[in-house]
Structures are given as C-alpha cells and as structure tokens.
Amino acid sequence: MSRVVGIDIGTSGVKAVLIEDDRALAEANRPLAVSVPHPGWSEQHPDLWVDAVFGCLDELSAGGRLADIRAIGLSGQMLGAVLLDRDLKPVRPAILWNDQRAIAECATLLERAPDIGYRTNGAPDPGITAPKLLWLARHEPDCLDRATLLMLPKDYVRLALTGDVATEPTDAGGTELFDVAVGRWDAGLCAAAGWDVSRLPPVIETWQAAGTVRTALSERWGFRHTVTLAAGAGDNMAATIGVGAGRPGDGVITIGTSGVACLVDGMFHAAPDKAVLTSAHAAPESFLSMGVVMSATASLDWVARLTGRPAADLAGLAEAVLEEDRIDEAPLFLPALTGIRTPLGRPDMTGRIHGLRPSTDPAGLAWATLEGVAYQIADCVEAQTGTGVPLERLAVVGGGARSRLWVRMIASLLDRPAGLPDQAPVAAALGAGRLARVAAGLDDPVALTAPMPEMPVTIEPDPTLARRLGERRLRFQDLLPEDRIVS
C-alpha cells in the first residue's frame, strides 16, 4: 500500500487529501478566519492552523481510512512570521503574507543591505518576513525579546505533529534571511533585519524526512505504521509540483485570491527591479520564478459585492460581452485593490477604472475585471521571461480557471496553449503528497522532475481575441503608475 496524505494550509482554509498513486481518494476541509486588527493588517493565530489540520485528519481517519498511510506532506501559505518562545509557543498571532504594515521598514532593509534583492527571493516587500521583524522591533519589542525562534506557518504545524523543528529552502527563501542562490541562512541578512541566525530552524530538502508523527497522535488517527513527515514546501512550489511542473520550462499560473505565475528555472535569475520573486523550487536543482498579482479572484469578489451578483455568475456575463461584441463598451479596470507587486513593486497602489458610462452594467465590469487581471498576469510573465526564465509548457489552476474565458484571455495574451489539470483544486495537496512519497522512500527525488503530463483540456490562443486585447492593453497601460521600485 502506498497511500500518503497531502495537507495544504492556506490563508482561508486547510485542505487534507488522502492520496494513492497521485489520485485523490478522499478530502477534508476546514475554514480559517483572518484577523484584521487595523486596515492593511492581516493576522492568524498559529494554533488555528493546528486545530484545522487535526480536524481534517480526524475526519479522514473515520472508518480506518488512514490506517496504512506511510507519510504526510505539508504545503503552506508562505512569508508569515511565526515567533515562538523558549517553550515553542507563539508569542503573538502570525503576521501574514498579505499584511501591509511594514512598508517603511522595506526602505530600511534596502538601505542596510542594498544587494538583498539579488541574494534573496526579491526586493523587500511588506509581505515578506524580514521587514515584519523590523516593524516588530519598532512597535512590539517585548514580543521580540520573548521570541527564541522564527518559523513559517507549515513548519509550526509540523512541529505540532512531530515535536521536531525544521524548515526547507522554499519557505526559508521567503524570509529574506536566506541566500537563495547559495542555499543557506545568511548572517549578514539576519543582522540587517535585527535577527540572529541561532534563532532560525535547520534547513533540509523539501522531500527529506523531517520527523515522525507523535505516538499519541498516531493512536488518535489509527496509524498502523510509523508515519514520516516530509519537510514540505511553500504553497506555490507545492502546487507547481502537484500538476507535474518540476523541470525548467514548465509554468503554472494560479488564478486564486491572488494570481501567481510560477515558472520553473534551472538558474537563479534574480529580478528585484521587476518585483519578481525567485526561490528554490521543491524539485531537485531548480528554482521557481514567481510573478504576483495581488488581487485576482479577489477583484471579481469585489465586483460581486458591488453589483450584488454572485461571482460565479459574473464570469458568464463576461462571456456574453464577447459573444455580443460589446468589448469596446466595457471600461478598463486596473484591479490593484491591494497594491501591485510584479512588475512595479507598488504595495501602496490602489485600483483604477477608466471609461465608465451610464450604460456600464455588471457584465461590462465583469469583462473589465477578467481582462485587467489577465493583463497583469501577462505583465508578470513578460517580466520573468525578459530576464531569461524559460517558458515552454503552461498549465492554469485555481478557482478562476473555472472560467474558460479567463484562461483563453491568458493563453491569447501569452500566445501559448494553456492546459487545465483534472485535479487542479487539490494541486498543492497533491504536490505535498509527492514530497511525502519521496520522504517515505516510495519514490526517488528524480520523480519530481518527470515531464509535465498531458492535460485533459487545453485552451488554445485565439488570434482574434489576442488582437482585441492587444488594442485595449495599450490604453490599459495608461492606468499604471510611471514610477517603479528601485532595487
């Protein structure tokens, strides 16, 4: 029996999947609430993740379904600052990836380490861990005084499952305390952030064993074997592995709450001047170049609240705009509701709409939203490939991929076929499961670099749509700010 469990610890929920030979057999989900103590802040208590994961495993274990599993792999939201005291308990809620409070500290970090963007995953950004440490030093020094260890979200859950402390390169790379090209914590970067290397976990490979499930928990879930925990990976890397993208030239675009263009690279192509994030990938000898759109389906949700129409219906209304040839009547929308990361690095940016008329209706706003996000995704990919990152094969995942029009827009703008994997909703959990298989000795690490499989559905570029979008994109560029970040 070669069953494993893959667990994805997201911002809005936890998903656990029982997997056999890359097939999802059963799934359990638990929602998570985000705390917003002040505008622009975003926090969660780490024990919420643990409770949700344990609840999912309780559900999956019903009827002895987990009796024969061999390993568990974890995928997790990245960049969150989890500070633990000497008893390995959180000293405060975790500051999450989409928290914007540390904007001023980014400038401080860049001043202290001018080359930081070319050694870490990218230019300083308030969502990344190191600026958060500087903010805490200024505003909550007592928390830092009590903290003896900095961890990442999924690693805190693994600690609860095993009692062991560890991390791996994909999550470590998001802290900006880790030299990504070299693959180790960097004392100089830590000093710039006011943190000591001794207060960081050891780093092992994503697919290596990082402890075993505690005896009491094994009994709780009915495990008949010792269950190994893989080190795991950040959610973007895990989802990329989950759809089989493990070799240079593979690309996965996620249309979720945020949008992410993940391109697998064989070299470390740093591009901080374009706000591209470059981290180690979860597959051997590779890196992952990431371009980020801060508000993707979140922008469609905003239009849904504004119009009183369900977000799922809006995608259909946008289809009608195309069918009725009303594209030119639609406004242009820059969906920068929570700032712009790639390629401008403007977390302070807000959304802009141009071309509103008395005739503008929910369908026109829906079209403008899908179009605006697609333009931003194309901007991301062009920023990445412009630095030498290869893109030969493309898959699209995430909740937004349910809209074939949205995928067709992206394929047409990039002039590349876009494949739709059949298990995309659980891609991150499947990727975590693949790492678990290697950790348990069921697969060799080279299996993570197998060719990307054929997709059951492929959306081809539409030359007519590409022309129409190209014309409107020229005017869309006028909505963008002229000033960019300085690396």
Name the descriptors.
about 475 residues, alpha+beta, 7-stranded mixed β-sheet, globular, 15 helices, 22 strands, 5-stranded mixed β-sheet
How would you describe this structure to a colleague?
The chain is an alpha+beta fold and 487 residues long. It is built from 15 helices and 22 strands. It has helices at 46-60, 103-112, 129-139, 141-146, 153-162, 169-172, 187-192, 215-221, 235-242, 297-307, 311-323, 362-385, 404-414, 427-439, 463-476; strands at residues 3-9, 13-20, 23-31, 43-44, 71-76, 82-84, 94-95, 149-151, 178-179, 184-185, 209-212, 228-230, 233-234, 249-255, 259-265, 277-280, 287-293, 332-334, 352-354, 391-397, 418-420, 457-459. The strands form seven sheets. Strands 1, 2, 3, 5, 11, 12 and 13 form a seven-stranded mixed beta sheet that branches. A hairpin with a 3-residue loop joins strand 14 (249-255) and strand 15 (259-265). Helix 11 crosses helix 12 (362-385). The longest helix has 24 residues, at 362-385. The protein starts with a strand and ends in an 11-residue tail after the last helix.
SSE inventory with pairings:
Elements: E1 3-9, E2 13-20, E3 23-31, E4 43-44, H1 46-60, E5 71-76, E6 82-84, E7 94-95, H2 103-112, H3 129-139, H4 141-146, E8 149-151, H5 153-162, H6 169-172, E9 178-179, E10 184-185, H7 187-192, E11 209-212, H8 215-221, E12 228-230, E13 233-234, H9 235-242, E14 249-255, E15 259-265, E16 277-280, E17 287-293, H10 297-307, H11 311-323, E18 332-334, E19 352-354, H12 362-385, E20 391-397, H13 404-414, E21 418-420, H14 427-439, E22 457-459, H15 463-476
Helix pairs in contact: 1-5, 2-3, 9-14, 10-12, 11-12, 12-13
